[in-house]
Amino acid sequence: MKRKLAAVAVLSATALLTGVIQVSTAAQAAPTPSLQAQAAQQHATALKLAAGQAGPLAKALKLGDKEQLVAKDAAVDKDGTRHLRFERTYAGLPVIGGDLVVHQKADGSVKAVDKAVAARIALSNLTPKIAADQAAAQVTGTVKATVGVAADADESPLTEVRPAGQAELVVWASDGNPRLAYRTTVEGARADGTPSRQILVTDAADGRVLATHETIETASGTGNGIFVGQVPLTTTQSGSQYQLRDASRGGQSTSDLNNGTDGTGSLFANTSDSFGDGTVNSRESAAVDAQFGAATTWDFYKTTFGRSGIRNDGVGALSRVHYGSNYVNAFWDDSCFCMSYGDGSNNTAPLTEIDVAGHEMSHGVTAATANLNYAGESGGLNEATSDIMGTMVEWYANLPSNPPNYWIGELINLNGNGTPLRYMDQPSKDGGSADYWDANVGNLDVHYSSGVANHFFYLLSEGSGAKTINGFSYNSPTYDNSTLAGIGRDKAAQIWYRALTTYFTSTTDYAGARAGTLSAAADLYGSSSAEYNAVAASWTAVNVN
Ligand SMILES: [Zn+2]
Questions:
Q1: CA–CA gap between residue 223 and residue 286 (Å, rounded)
Q2: What's the predicted TM-score (pTM) here?
Q3: 105-119, 426-440, 443-457, 524-538: lowest mean pLDDT where?
Q4: Cα–ligand 1 centroid distance for 456 (angstroms)
């Protein structure tokens, strides 16, 4: 049996100790009606107008006496021109394809009518041949037969189908040949974790499928995050709502824990496909950071290592934001396959920086591979793996709002003085981390014993000594006073990832990490390669021999 020592891996050892003084911020905006409220008022008025005209318009359009118009939407132009949108019923049954738009001048006279279907509806018999429950059972069977079959390129196959609820009797008119039909909704799930809600229309006489429509669709939204700036987001359209769920990346989603500490929270959704305003005033802003961080981490692993998701099974993880109250930390939890972000001091400083997202998701990768025990030297290697991959995610994202570097959490200001949480070039700069291995390193907190491997990774990537990289200054020392030239972070990451997924085990210690990364370098570049020699020299430079 696998021991789950690393089930919950937090970002920082000391972060929880901060944030003692609470300051309440009570500034409230004055209740002046916004432009949005005015627009809503105008729309309500126009809709009322359309509802009032439904009867007279049905007559004017010479609809049959079984037909009624139901106002659905209305818009009024600046010059008073009205566009009134209606659905239709026939003998009280909804007509699919019965919708129409009436365009009126400001004085109410009809200018034009756009009908979805021109055909007249005249049904002689309103009794279906197939009973409603029989129709629902048939539809369930039809959908179940498609389990495992990919419908199209951006829809992953159905894995689960729940029996349909009631089949609703309707008139099907969309094909210009009006007849009695059933409309049935069937729910389920797809292989990538995306929910499915299909609406099927079947002929009430012979059960034939007339139309199928998946109501949950992928959309291209925009987010304004606190740390990421303005970014594109792949969202999910469900009815009139857009959700922070990314079907193109394993259905990974972001939810609002509403300052609670358990459960899956409520999925972020709104009617526009735009989320957040870039500040903590919008609860969506931290969610944008989290969702974009998860997407970037997904892409980084896929592009760099060919890995499909944290467990390499194509399934995306849940990100939960607004975890707890004044919670100054973030953590990965294997049991919920989710990561959680606190809102920081006074609930105004969410910990949603992208290297933190990459850090947390990489704990999931470690759990799914080497499963390094979260204590002793293996715990330090577990933490370092997250810092290394989190940093690589930051380089991969290369955001103007967050220029990449070899520091961890430099934007979330956990120390309160603008300094990073951790430094890879010289870990001891944080006041607690080890630059070099010694026999006591395994007794340190895992966030400090990680320093040896972080330092190794920096030296392997960039080499030793003073240098400026992407505008940031570093000065990385070596235990043996050697001068090292780096092989570049991309190669260093390949070596680390291969060691993690191929050689490391739950009990790997620093000596084992040296052996594992040397094996990985030999596999990738050859045992007499410059890369292999650089791995050896970099470990020696952090006193791992
Ligand atoms: Zn961690």
A1: 10
A2: 0.71
A3: 105-119
A4: 18
